[in-house]
């Protein structure tokens, strides 16, 4: 149906604007339509025979891959950013733009997936630990009724279920290895009796203990989920050290573990999926310091999880956990590395396309014909001139760790260019590439306009001022920053760049004195960072002995906003000016423009 729709719009209804009338002759249309019928019949035949029809845009989420072995082998790329840091023997929080591959990496790093796929992940260092995976949605799905205030009994019940979920994953993995390396699980039978007492019915010696335990765990999960009274006097797994005890038992009794530590990959540990109160309950387990068990947690952003540990002690970066922000790492990643990584990710997807098999990302998109400075000069010389963003440089330039969005943009290009691709015309026309980049940026800004204040889930509507649309305010901040940057590019003084004077090109914002935001400004700063509208640079910058934030506009907005991909320059603000930008965005540009006109040579805004 999408092909038929495209055929109608681009073939039958296409009009020649110069000579009038329709472009295609009836004979040509008939021939094209017959080819369309033939392709549809071939696809129907393939579907009827059970043969998978593979498309470049398949599996935008890791969950959709399921246990499809060949798809995992084909689509997973082991060279993902920050792999070395993630696999260090430390508690680690991994964050990045939505769709950046956190779930895919977490799932693939497990011992279970190694067995399902039949080979190791190929990630350097993955043989130094045993990985297990749990998605927090399993916990949330089990308890959709969690009340706002959690009494002691409910807290114990949640911890009990959390441990059961991990226990289930561990025994599932043990069962995978049991087929090749038979083990005695009498130790597990004894362990269950010690933990659950008379509620666990032991089996005769040499019976299939593992299968019995797995069935018991699933039954216990259901009992816990429904909270049936009288089944247990207390929740057996509500003790905080259950996983430590289990890990020790496995090291002593499971031969293939070889005393390797366990990595517990906990996915989607983010507010509001997991409420702040539930995180306070689980944090003492997750952020506990151990020598043989390390949690790896993924969150939406660096400020989307609770920083409170045992007895209310604040969790400190570098003391209690290490933070990896893939979006921040992407800012500093070498351009050549980005090209290589994206090429590896897209190569198997390109090969799924009927007309592109054997082609590279460079073949499909072409090269960037001009530099950022040349592009800036064109914009400055004639601000009304139509600028086209295209080529592999633009594709790499908009990437901010979000692979899912990149796949969607790429698919939009393929759909728009399908007729030309069929004729073997490559690279894709610059007008098509430019249109898709700008549309993606517009959609992202539309998304920004719809977001809620992060405190909304805890404080409710009272967290938003009467008459204010929080997302619209964030959009106003973005648009004002872009106006400032565009003014610098087209009207501001030239700056030294690459050995010559060029227009100032800035999608980076820097605070040049002590960073200190009041609550009314911080609420917007938190939203900009939470939703990756601006990306935090965790390396920061030292100014007069202080570390101050550096923020980068999300690169997907650059074509939409008519900026360049150069990261050489920046917009510098004092803290008080940044507060004004956050709280009064519509008034800020007028204030800034006035200052610049009063003294056009000043380098900063003061």
Overview of this protein structure:
By secondary structure, the protein is of the alpha/beta class. The protein is built from 27 helices and 13 strands. Helix 9 packs antiparallel against helix 11. It is globular. The termini are far apart. The model has no long low-confidence stretch (mean pLDDT 87).
Features:
606 residues, alpha/beta, five-stranded parallel β-sheet, four-stranded mixed β-sheet, 27 helices
For the largest sheet, list the strands in their spatial order. Answer: 2-3-4-1-5
User: Distance between termini?
Assistant: 58 Å
The backbone outline, from C-alpha atoms, is: globular
Radius of gyration: 28 Å
Q: Please indicate the percent range of residues in DSSP E strands (runs of 2 or more).
A: 5-15%
Number of helical segments? 27
| Average pLDDT for all residues | 87
Uncertain runs are none
Total number of β-strand segments?
13
Percent of residues in helical segments? 40-55%
Task: Determine the structural class based on helices, strands and strand pairing.
Answer: alpha/beta
The biggest beta sheet is recorded as: 5 strands, parallel
Overview in brief:
With 606 residues, this protein is of the alpha/beta class. The protein is 49% helix and 9% strand.
Topology readout:
Layout: H1 2-12, H2 26-48, H3 62-65, H4 69-75, H5 83-86, E1 92-95, H6 102-108, H7 111-117, E2 130-135, H8 136-142, H9 152-178, H10 186-196, H11 209-226, H12 242-253, E3 262-267, H13 276-286, E4 293-298, E5 322-325, H14 326-332, H15 335-350, H16 361-365, H17 372-381, H18 392-397, H19 403-416, H20 418-422, H21 430-450, H22 456-459, H23 470-490, E6 495-497, E7 500-502, E8 508-511, H24 519-530, E9 534-536, E10 541-543, E11 546-548, E12 550-553, H25 558-561, E13 571-573, H26 575-583, H27 585-598
Parallel strand pairs: 1-4, 1-5, 2-3, 3-4, 8-13
Antiparallel strand pairs: 6-7, 8-12, 9-12, 10-11
């Amino acid at each position: 149906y999408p092909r038929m729709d495209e055929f109608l719009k681009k073939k039958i209804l296409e009009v020649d604007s110069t000579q009038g009338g329709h472009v295609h002759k009836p004979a040509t249309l008939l021939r094209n339509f017959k080819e369309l019928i033939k392709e549809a019949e071939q696809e129907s035949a393939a579907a009827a025979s059970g043969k998978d029809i593979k498309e470049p845009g398949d599996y935008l989420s890791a969950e959709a891959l399921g246990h499809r072995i060949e798809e995992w082998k084909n689509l997973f790329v082991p060279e993902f950013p920050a792999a070395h840091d993630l696999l260090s023997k430390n508690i680690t929080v991994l964050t990045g733009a939505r769709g950046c591959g956190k779930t895919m990496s977490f799932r693939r790093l497990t011992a279970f997936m190694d067995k399902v796929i039949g080979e190791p992940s190929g990630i350097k260092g993955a043989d130094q630990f045993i990985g297990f995976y749990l998605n927090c949605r399993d916990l949330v799905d089990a308890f959709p009724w969690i009340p706002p205030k959690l009494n002691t009994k409910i807290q114990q019940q949640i911890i009990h279920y959390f441990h059961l979920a991990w226990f289930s994953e561990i025994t599932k993995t043990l069962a995978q290895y049991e087929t090749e390396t038979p083990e005695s699980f009498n130790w597990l039978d004894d362990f269950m009796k010690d933990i659950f007492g008379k509620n666990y019915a032991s089996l005769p010696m040499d019976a299939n203990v593992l299968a019995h335990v797995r069935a018991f765990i699933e039954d216990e999960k259901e009992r816990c989920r429904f909270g049936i009274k009288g089944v247990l006097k207390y929740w057996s797994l509500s003790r905080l050290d259950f996983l430590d005890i289990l890990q020790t038992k496995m090291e002593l009794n499971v031969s293939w573990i070889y005393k390797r530590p366990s990595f517990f990959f906990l996915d989607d540990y983010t507010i509001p999926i997991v409420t702040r109160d539930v995180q306070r309950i689980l944090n003492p387990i997750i952020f506990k310091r151990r020598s043989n068990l390390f949690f790896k947690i993924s969150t939406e952003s660096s400020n989307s999880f609770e920083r409170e540990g045992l007895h209310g002690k604040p969790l400190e970066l570098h003391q209690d956990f290490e933070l990896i922000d893939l979006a921040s790492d992407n800012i500093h990643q070498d351009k050549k590395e980005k090209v290589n990584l994206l090429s590896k990710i897209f190569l198997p997807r390109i090969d799924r396309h009927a007309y592109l098999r054997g082609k590279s990302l460079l073949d499909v998109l072409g090269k960037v014909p001009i530099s950022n400075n040349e592009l800036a000069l064109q914009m400055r010389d004639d601000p009304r001139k139509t600028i086209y963003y295209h080529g592999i440089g633009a594709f790499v330039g908009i990437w901010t760790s979000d692979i899912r969005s990149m796949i969607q943009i790429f698919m939009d290009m393929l759909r728009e260019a399908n007729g030309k691709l069929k004729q073997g015309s490559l690279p894709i026309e610059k007008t098509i590439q430019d249109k898709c980049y700008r549309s993606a940026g517009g959609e992202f800004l539309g998304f920004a306009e719809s977001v809620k204040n992060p405190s909304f889930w805890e404080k409710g509507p009272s967290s938003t001022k009467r008459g204010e649309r929080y997302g619209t305010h964030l959009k106003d901040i973005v648009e004002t920053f872009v106006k400032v940057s565009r003014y610098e590019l087209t009207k501001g003084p030239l700056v030294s760049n690459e050995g010559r004077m060029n227009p100032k090109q800035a999608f980076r914002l820097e605070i040049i004195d002590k960073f200190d935001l009041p609550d009314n400004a911080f609420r917007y700063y938190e939203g900009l960072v939470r939703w990756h509208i601006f990306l935090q640079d965790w390396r920061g910058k030292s100014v007069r002995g202080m570390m101050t934030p550096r923020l980068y506009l999300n690169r997907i907005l650059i074509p939409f906003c008519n900026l360049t991909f150069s990261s050489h320059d920046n917009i510098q603000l004092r803290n008080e000016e940044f507060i004004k930008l956050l709280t009064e965005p519509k008034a800020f540009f007028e204030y800034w423009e006035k200052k610049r006109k009063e003294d056009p040579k000043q380098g900063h805004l003061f």
